C-alpha cells in the first residue's frame, strides 16, 4: 500500500516536487529542449537551499568533485574540483571537522592508511612516470575528501537520503544534456538506449571534450543506492518516481556493468532490508530480478542483447580483451609493472576493468598478498557486519555496492582507494553519534574548558612572579 508522504519542512516538499519533475527533465533533455546549464543551476539551487551543512559536505565530496572536474575544462574553468570541494567542506564543517578524527575513528583510519601506504611504496619502488605521478596525486586527494565524506555519513543522524540523493540524479542528467547538446545528433526516440554511448564514442573521434558514459550511470546508481539504503519498503510515489528516474538514466548510459549492478542492488535490498535473512525472501528477490531482467529484454536494450550483432562485438567495444592483462601478469607475476604504469604505450588503453586484475598487473602477486592481508585482518578482527546501519538508518552494504561495481569497470587503480575507504568506514564504525545541538554544546564545553585552563595558567604565572618578588 502506498503511504502518503509526510513533509517535515517546506524544503522537503520542494525537494519532492523536484524529484517528480526529473522524468520531465529527462524528456526535455532527450528532445534537446532543456540544455545542460539549466540542470547545473538546479543542482546548485538544490545544494544551497535543500541540504543542511552535513549533507552539503557529502555532496561536495561525492558530487561536486566530479562535477567540477568533469565540466570545468569543458567550460574553460581550470580549477581543481577537489580543492574547491574540500574548501567548501571546511566552510560547512568548520565546527565539527576536527571532531570527526578521534579515538573512535582510529582503527578504521589505520586500515585505510595501510592500503594507501602499500600503493605509495609500490609507486616509490617501481619508478616515477608521468602517468604514475598523476595517479598518486589523484589517490592522495581522494584519500582526504572521500574519508571526510564517509566519516560524516557514519557520524550524524540528521542526514536525510531523499535530500542527499537528488544532486546525484541531476549530475547524471547534466552529463546527458551535455552530450545531447554537443554530439551533433540526438536520440531517435525517448527509448533510444544506445544514443548516449554511441554519441560519446563519436565525440571522442572528433576530439570534442567528452565524458565517460560510465560516469553518468554511476552517478544515477549512487543516487539510487543512497535512497534505497534508508528504505525498508517502497513507501510512496516519491520512491517510485526516484527509482524510475534512476533506472532510466542508468539504462540510457549504456554501461552494462552499472545496469547489472542496479539489478544486484535491488536483490540485496530485498534480502537485507528487514535485517532477517530468510530463504523465502531470497526466492522472492530472485523472482523479482528475473522479471526485472525480462522487462529490460522486452525493451530491447542493445547492451543486454547477447545474441545480436551488436552484442557479438560488444567485448571489443568495452575493451574487454583479457589477453593483455593476463600477458602482463605472466611477465611480471611477482612485482607487477609498477603502480600507475598500466598506461597507453604498454596496453593500448585495453584496461583490465577489474580491481583484482589491476592489482596483479601493477603490483604483482606480492602486492595482492599485502592488500589481501589488510582486508582479511580487518574483516576478521573488526566485526564485518553486512547489515550494519548508519546513524540515519541507511544500510551500509547498499552504499558500498556502487563502489564495488565501479572498481570492476575502471582502469585506474588509484581511484579505487574509495572502495577501501567506504568499506572500512561503513562496515565498522563505533564512533559517538552526535547531533548538531550536541556538537554545539560540546564546542561550548571545550571552549569553556580551554578558558579555565588558560585562566589557571595565568594565575599560576602571576603567583610565581609574586613569589619571586617576595624572595627578592
Quick description:
With 472 residues, the chain is mainly alpha-helical. The chain has helices at residues 10-20, 22-30, 36-50, 53-71, 81-92, 106-125, 130-153, 161-164, 166-182, 195-205, 213-229, 237-253, 256-272, 279-298, 309-312, 314-317, 323-331, 344-347, 355-381, 396-407, 417-426, 436-471.
- Number of helical runs? 22
Largest sheet: none
Distance between the termini: 88 Å
Shape: globular
Secondary structure: helix percent: 55-70%
CA-atom Rg in angstroms:
25 Å
User: What's the average pLDDT?
Assistant: 77
Number of domains: 2
Structural class: mainly alpha
What does this structure look like?
The termini are far apart. The protein folds into two domains: 9-50 and 160-318, no CATH class; 101-154 and 321-386 and 390-445, no CATH class. It has 22 helices and no strands. The chain is globular. It is mostly helical and 472 residues long. The longest helix has 36 residues, at 436-471. It has helices at residues 10-20, 22-30, 36-50, 53-71, 81-92, 106-125, 130-153, 161-164, 166-182, 195-205, 213-229, 237-253, 256-272, 279-298, 309-312, 314-317, 323-331, 344-347, 355-381, 396-407, 417-426, 436-471.
What is this structure's SSE topology?
Elements: H1 10-20, H2 22-30, H3 36-50, H4 53-71, H5 81-92, H6 106-125, H7 130-153, H8 161-164, H9 166-182, H10 195-205, H11 213-229, H12 237-253, H13 256-272, H14 279-298, H15 309-312, H16 314-317, H17 323-331, H18 344-347, H19 355-381, H20 396-407, H21 417-426, H22 436-471
Amino acid at each position: 500500500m502506498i503511504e502518503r508522504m509526510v513533509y517535515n519542512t517546506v524544503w522537503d516538499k520542494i525537494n519532492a516536487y523536484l524529484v517528480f519533475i526529473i522524468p520531465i527533465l529527462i524528456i526535455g533533455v532527450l528532445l534537446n529542449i532543456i540544455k545542460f546549464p539549466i540542470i547545473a543551476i538546479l543542482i546548485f539551487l538544490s545544494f544551497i537551499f535543500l541540504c543542511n551543512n552535513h549533507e552539503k559536505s557529502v555532496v561536495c565530496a561525492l558530487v561536486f568533485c566530479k562535477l567540477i572536474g568533469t565540466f570545468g575544462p569543458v567550460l574553460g574553468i581550470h580549477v581543481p574540483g577537489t580543492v574547491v570541494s574540500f574548501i567548501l567542506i571546511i566552510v560547512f564543517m568548520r565546527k565539527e571537522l576536527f571532531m570527526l578524527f578521534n579515538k573512535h575513528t582510529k582503527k578504521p583510519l589505520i586500515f585505510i592508511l595501510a592500503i594507501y601506504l602499500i600503493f605509495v611504496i609500490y609507486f616509490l619502488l617501481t619508478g616515477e612516470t608521468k602517468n604514475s605521478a598523476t595517479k598518486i596525486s589523484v589517490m592522495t586527494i581522494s584519500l582526504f575528501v572521500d574519508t571526510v565524506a564517509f566519516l560524516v555519513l557514519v557520524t550524524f543522524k540528521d542526514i536525510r537520503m531523499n535530500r542527499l540523493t537528488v544532486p546525484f540524479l541531476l549530475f547524471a542528467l547534466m552529463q546527458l544534456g551535455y552530450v545531447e547538446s554537443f554530439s551533433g545528433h540526438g536520440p531517435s526516440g525517448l527509448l533510444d538506449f544506445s544514443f548516449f554511448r554511441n554519441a560519446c564514442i563519436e565525440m571522442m573521434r572528433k576530439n570534442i571534450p567528452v565524458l565517460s558514459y560510465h560516469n553518468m550511470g554511476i552517478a544515477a546508481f549512487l543516487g539510487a543506492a543512497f535512497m534505497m539504503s534508508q528504505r525498508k519498503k517502497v513507501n510512496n510515489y516519491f520512491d517510485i518516481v526516484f527509482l524510475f528516474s534512476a533506472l532510466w538514466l542508468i539504462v540510457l548510459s549504456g554501461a552494462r556493468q552499472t545496469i547489472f549492478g542496479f539489478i544486484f542492488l535491488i536483490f540485496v535490498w530485498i534480502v537485507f532490508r528487514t535485517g532477517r535473512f530468510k530463504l523465502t525472501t531470497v526466492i522472492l528477490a530472485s523472482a523479482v530480478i528475473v522479471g526485472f531482467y525480462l522487462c529490460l529484454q522486452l525493451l530491447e536494450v542493445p547492451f543486454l542483447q547477447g545474441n545480436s550483432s551488436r552484442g557479438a562485438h560488444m567485448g571489443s567495444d568495452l575493451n574487454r580483451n583479457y589477453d593483455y592483462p593476463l600477458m602482463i601478469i605472466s611477465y611480471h607475476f611477482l612485482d607487477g609493472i609498477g603502480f600507475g604504469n598500466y598506461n597507453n604505450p604498454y596496453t593500448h588503453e585495453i584496461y583490465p576493468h577489474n580491481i583484482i586484475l589491476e592489482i596483479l598487473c601493477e603490483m604483482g602477486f606480492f602486492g595482492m598478498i599485502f592488500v589481501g592481508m589488510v582486508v582479511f585482518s580487518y574483516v576478521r578482527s573488526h566485526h564485518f557486519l553486512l547489515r550494519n546501519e548508519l546513524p540515519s538508518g541507511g544500510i551500509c552494504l547498499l552504499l558500498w555496492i556502487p563502489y564495488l561495481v565501479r572498481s570492476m569497470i575502471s582502469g585506474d587503480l588509484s581511484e579505487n582507494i574509495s572502495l577501501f575507504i567506504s568499506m572500512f568506514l561503513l562496515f565498522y564504525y563505533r564512533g559517538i553519534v552526535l547531533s548538531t545541538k550536541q556538537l554545539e554544546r560540546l564546542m561550548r564545553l571545550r571552549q569553556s574548558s580551554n578558558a579555565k585552563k588558560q585562566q589557571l595558567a595565568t594565575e599560576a604565572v602571576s603567583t610565581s612572579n609574586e613569589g619571586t618578588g617576595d624572595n627578592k
